[in-house]
Write a structure and sequence with these properties.
Largest sheet: none
Order of helices and strands: H
Helix content: 40-55%
Structural class: mainly alpha
Number of strands: 0
Distance between the termini: 82 Å
Length: about 80
């Protein structure tokens, strides 16, 4: 058996300064306000910096790994040419 639950009315009626999505604007005293464009640009820049740092770390690790693989390959070739 299924019962339908009706949504209840809001506890407090929205005030005149409430936006249609339910957010209420802050009145005065806000010292750290930046525009939406500035926030998006900052976030986009941070993402690019993180991606560039990750790429740099990955390339450095691959270079080190490649060096180790070449040394291991050289050692295996030397061992395979020694008579038993």
């Amino acid at each position: 058996m299924q019962t339908l639950v009706q949504p209840s009315a809001p506890a407090t009626p929205p005030s005149g300064s409430a936006l249609p999505d339910g957010f209420v604007k802050v009145q005065g005293g806000a010292t750290e306000q930046v525009s939406e464009t500035t926030s998006l640009l900052l976030a986009y820049s941070a993402i690019w910096l993180i991606l560039m740092a990750f790429t740099l770390v990955t390339f450095r690790a691959l270079r080190a790994l490649r060096g180790q693989a070449e040394r291991a390959d050289k050692a295996v070739r030397q061992l395979s040419h020694t008579p038993r």
